[in-house]
Amino acid sequence: MEAKILNGKVVSKELEESVRNRVSEYVEKYGKAPILATIIVGEDPGSKMYVKMKSKACDRVGIDNRVIALDDTITTEGLLSLIDELNNNEDIDGILIQHPLPRTIDEKLCFDEIALEKDIDGVNSKSFGAVTMGQDAFASATPSGIMEILKYYDIDVSGKHAVVVGRSPILGKPVSMLLLNSDATVTICHTKTKNIAEILKTADIVVAACGSPEFVQKDWLKEGVVIVDAGYNKGNIGDVSKEAYEIASAYTPVPGGVGPMTIAETLEHTITSAEKKQKRIEEDKKKVKTISVIVRANS
Description:
Rossmann fold; 9 helices; 9 strands; about 300 residues; alpha/beta; six-stranded parallel sheet; three-stranded parallel sheet
């Protein structure tokens, strides 16, 4: 039986269309577009290219992406001050910091400064904690995209053994928690895990996210495994050997699998943040109105 290709381009296109419709309704109702503030520090070519791709995607769906380009001489304190300013700007619906940041900046400290309701990339430690506990917060975009792909192709993870290869704070760890919250039994491995081949041989679903070209080998996996390759290395090479596709029941290709979902999820999180903000505003107005009525009645 030929393996099913889990095509992220197809899923992301449909998600973008959904976001476009929601943004259109939002603009019609509130008279303004949702605003995403994207911070980029320095002149890294890869980061600049990715920010440009995000800006084009925002244009396609009607989101106002305001790119704040900073010189790499900015200090951690300067960046924290900017983030605080954006947190307090009621017009801003989402804040995204393009990473990696220069080594002179405390990246984690800056991530943790982003207000939870505007942390559309799920980089704040508190966002991760909330997601882990199944509470209302944004998960990182790529893990969210992985779950969306599995859902789109009707791959039920409940009761399945999912092995995640990778432990990064914005990919391996959050996707593990999302899988666990969806009733999968999750094992987290990494490039230093002993007997990793034996562990992977028990996996129904493998999520490869270790950033090591073709790290996961065909003979490490069992027949019928679902492969989600979230790796992207030089030369369009994933973290799983392409030979492994031969025994898989389904797999995400590289490129064209997980990659396209990251930007699509960023868009979805931004409109969701904007909608939640308007809901909070409306609820606050109702509370004020109710209090006013009570005060008048008691006057």
